[in-house]
Amino acid sequence: MSVDAILERAVNGERISMEDAVELYKCDDLDKLGRAADAIMKQWHPEPVTTFVIGRNVNYTNFCDTYCSFCAFYRPPNHKDGYVLDDEVIFQKIKETEDVGGTEILMQGGTNPNLKLDYYTDLLKGIKKRFPNIWMHSFSPAEIWKIAEVMDMTVEDVLRELHEAGLDSMPGGGAEILTEETRMRVSRLKVTADQWLEAMKASKKVGMFGSATMVIGFGESFEERALHLQRVRDAQDETGCFTAFISWLLQPENTGLRRLEKLTPEDYLKNVAISRIFLDNIANFQSSWVTMGPEVGKKSLHFGCNDFGSTMMEENVVSAANTTHKVNSNLTLKLIREAGKIPAQRNTKYDILHRFEGDETVDKDFVMQN
């Protein structure tokens, strides 16, 4: 089937297949893919509003026994350069976030085998006691599985205890490409594709939700990318566990994969567009300005993204791979307006908290840290 026919079907509300997705990946007409993705995005979000969340990424530990070849952030357990942040340091970071109108804390770290469940539950309880209005969007599936392994518990039971202690939702970090062919090549010790999906589904069972992610640039095939999208769509059909989808490119510098050719902004925009066209059951697509830069992030708002993601007051993982892009809240407003959209601050559930009409700016802004 021709690319035009596939896109016409998708824009008309028909579900496309993995084989269709592979044909779209082979297509070199980026603008054509972008127009279709933009049309589908507007079916979900008719108003010209682009949302964003004011949040902070707190990397509470860099000790990790997963040793992914593409990660420049981790340190092996007990390494001299490893750390676990003191609770008071974390509390101070959250206070700084609230002081500038922030609502979300994305707390992630390595798979630290020396931390037991009570470390996490005590920390969450301490955070909620001090900051009852902050939303804890924290701990990826790999971290959850490590806690389950250390405690000899099921993933669902771990998530239930974390949720009761104050965890509100779970980010989808660590999906990379959901095929064992690529995972065994670049992250042999990481959770399997099935385990990642199991954790995301379990988050819904215990009363939470999560986000789906995708990273391209590992040398994976178009067929693998299509299979990744299929697995995400199937999980969403089954449980409705995802509120958003975020994709980005592998940042290979300073990592064990530094010899891989880094993909281009066009590759990123194509993947965003095809993902929006294929994933007909996920409402929100986030731009990945953190890895791609603000200008490409702005362009993605015409390739299927309706959300600019988090202002991310602090970021350490991508920065470790020598990729550092910074925006604050007022620059976010400017970029969204330059894309011809109306900026609106949201919370993690995608409820709009405030629309910034005209030239309105944020009263209290921040300088991004890393």
TrEMBL record:
Protein residues bound to S-adenosyl-L-methionine: F70, E176
Pathway(s) served: Quinol/quinone metabolism; menaquinone biosynthesis
Keyword Kinase among record annotations: no
InterPro entries for the chain: Aldolase_TIM, CofH/MnqC-like_C, Cyclic_DHFL_synthase_mqnC, Elp3/MiaA/NifB-like_rSAM, F420, FO_synthase_su2, rSAM, rSAM_sf
Catalytic activity: dehypoxanthine futalosine + S-adenosyl-L-methionine = cyclic dehypoxanthinylfutalosinate + 5'-deoxyadenosine + L-methionine + H(+)
A Pfam family this chain is assigned to: CofH_C
GO biological process, alphabetically ordered: menaquinone biosynthetic process
Keywords (A to Z) from UniProt: 4Fe-4S, Iron, Iron-sulfur, Menaquinone biosynthesis, Metal-binding, Oxidoreductase, S-adenosyl-L-methionine
Record-linked PROSITE patterns: RADICAL_SAM
Binding site for [4Fe-4S] cluster: C64, C68, C71
EC number: 1.21.98.1
Start and end residues of each Radical SAM core domain: 50-295
Name under which the protein is recorded: Cyclic dehypoxanthine futalosine synthase
Gene name, Swiss-Prot/TrEMBL: mqnC
